[in-house]
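Thread: Modeling a multi-component assembly for a lab meeting

Hi all, long-time lurker, first post. My supervisor asked me to bring a structural picture of a complex we are working on to next week's group meeting, and I have zero experience with this. I have the sequence lines for every component (658 residues in total). Could someone generate the structure of the whole assembly? Inputs are pasted exactly as I received them:
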Amino acid sequence: MFLCSATGGGAHKFADVWEQELAIGMIKQDELDSLVAGMQFVLSTVVGECFTFRPKEDTKTDDRSMSEENANVNDTDMQQNFSCPIQSTLDSETDHEESNGSKVYTLDRWTRKVQRDTISYSSAYPYMLVTIGTGVSVLRVDGPRKHERVSGSTVGGGTFWGLMRLLTDVENFEDAMKLAEKGDPTKVDMMVGDIYGKNSDALEKLGLAADIVASSFGKLVSKEDPARGLTQEDLARALLSLVTNNIGQVAYLNAKLHKTPRIYFVGSFLRHNMISQRRLSYAIDYWSKGEMEALFLEHEGYFGALGAFLMTQNIENKADGFFQWKDHP
Amino acid sequence: MFLCSATGGGAHKFADVWEQELAIGMIKQDELDSLVAGMQFVLSTVVGECFTFRPKEDTKTDDRSMSEENANVNDTDMQQNFSCPIQSTLDSETDHEESNGSKVYTLDRWTRKVQRDTISYSSAYPYMLVTIGTGVSVLRVDGPRKHERVSGSTVGGGTFWGLMRLLTDVENFEDAMKLAEKGDPTKVDMMVGDIYGKNSDALEKLGLAADIVASSFGKLVSKEDPARGLTQEDLARALLSLVTNNIGQVAYLNAKLHKTPRIYFVGSFLRHNMISQRRLSYAIDYWSKGEMEALFLEHEGYFGALGAFLMTQNIENKADGFFQWKDHP
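Re: Modeling a multi-component assembly
Sure thing. I ran the full set together rather than chain by chain. Output:
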C-alpha cells in the first residue's frame, strides 16, 4: 500500500477514509512536532525567510542586541503598499520623545519590513512559537525537537472569521483583509479619550494616551442604535484589532514568563494579513519596551506539512542547523 | 460652594458642568486609588464580604494554604439556583482522578459558594486586583495605598455588551445573563473534539480533553449559513465565555508573573453574573493547579465611590487593617 504522512487533527480523523477509499495508508505525525520540525528546517536553510516590521525612520535596526550576532538587514519600505492611513490605537498619533531621549514611533509609521537572519545557533533558544490557526497555541522551543505547548488562546482566526460571518456578508478571508484596511476602528472601540477627554491630568497619571483602545467594541455600549453609522469596514477592522492585540498580549505575557526575547508568529491567520503582522511587531516592541521582537516567516502555513514529510523521511535537524538524511550520513 | 468627591474619567469630565449648572465643586479623586481604598476598607471591616466558588463535593476547602491563617468557612450550596446544566468547556464532562490521586471536578459541579475571611494581615500582600468594567485593569496591590496598574485588557464588559447589541436584540445586561444561562456554547465554539474526534490518541498526547474550546466562535467558520440553528441564548453564552475566559487568562498570567496566589475580581461586569464568577473560580484553580484562587466581593461596583469619599474625609487605612480618621487619632 502507498503510504503518505499527514499531520493535524483535521487530517488524522480521515485516516480510515484514506485507506478504504483511496488505498493510501496515513502515517500520522504529531501536529506540533511537525510544525516545529518544518519551521526549524526552513529557518536554518532558507535565506530571507524571517522578517519583522520596524518604524520607517528608526535607525536602531542594526544594534538590537537580539540580532547583533548575525544581523543581515535588508529593508524594504512597505509604505507604498498601504494606501490608507492605519489608525494608531496602541500609542498616541504623534511621535514623541521618551524621557531617556529615545524616540517613540507610532503604529502608522511601523511600515518598514526588515529581514532577520536565520537562526541556527544554540543561543537562539529558547524562543516562543505562536501558531495562529482557528485557535492559538503558544509553544516554548528549547532546541531541535525540544518543545512544549505552554499556553494558548481560544481567541484566534476562527473567532475573527466566525464573528465576521455573523456581522458582515464578506465571503472570504482575503476580502475581509481588504475591508479591514479601509475601516476606522475608533467608530467601534471605546478609546481612552472617549472616557477621560483628550487632555486630562488623569491620563498623565494613568500613563495612558487618549487614543489607545479602552474597550474593544465598547463604543457600541451607549449608542442608541449600536450599528448606526458603522460600515462593514469598521467592524472588520475592530474585530481584527481585538483578535490581534489579544494574541499579542497572551504571547507577550508568556514570553515574559519564560524570559524569551524572540516570539515567532506563524499560521494561516497571518496570510495576506499585513495589518496583524505590523500590529504584532509594534505591540510586542511597545509592551516589552524594545526588549522583545515579533518575528514572521515568509512560508508560514506550510511548516506542518513539510515537517511531517521530513520526519517520515527520517531527516534529522542537527544542532548546528544543517539537516541530513538520518540513514545516509 | 458645596464640595463633593467623585472618581472615574466618566465623572471627571463633567466637573465644569457640576460647577456651572449645579454649583457643586468636584473634588477629583484618582480612580484606582479610590477603588483600592474602598475595597480595602470593606475587606477589613465587613464580615462575609469575600467569597469564591468550589466544587460541590470538594472536601479540601479548609486546608488550602492560602486560607489556613484565617479560615472562616461558611458554605452555601448554590446548586439550586442553577436550573439548567452549565456546559463544561474547560475540562472534561466527567470528573476524573489525577495521577496524584486527587479528584478533578468539572465546571458543572463548581457551584458551592464558599466564604473567605477578610484580609487585614500583612501576609495578604501582594495580591492581584482585576477590575472589569467596560475595559479591564489589572493591578498589583502591595499594601494599603500601595498599588500599580500592571496590565489590562480591551476585551471586557464593553466588548460583551457591544457585541451582544450587534448580535441579539436583548435590551439590558440582566436579560443578557438570563439568556446566557440557557445557551449552549458548543453550537458556536469549535471544541477540541470537533477537530480530533472524541477518543483520539492525539488528544492524549496533547493533554487536551475533547470538550474544551479550541476556538471561540470557531464552529461558524465552516457552516454554510453561520447563523443557522443558533439561538440568541447560544450566542450570549459563547460571548460571555469568550470574554470571561480571556479575562481569566490575562489575570492568571499576570498573577503567575507577580507570584501572587490571590486574584480579586471586581467591577460591574460581575454583577448578577454568577456564570462568570463560577467560571473564573474554576479556571484559575484549573490553570494554576490549585495554587491560586479567584476571589469576589459582595459589594463590588461601589468601591470607587466609597474610596473617593473615604479619601476626601482623610480616613486612612492603617497597616493592621483598622481604619481611623486621619485628623482625629
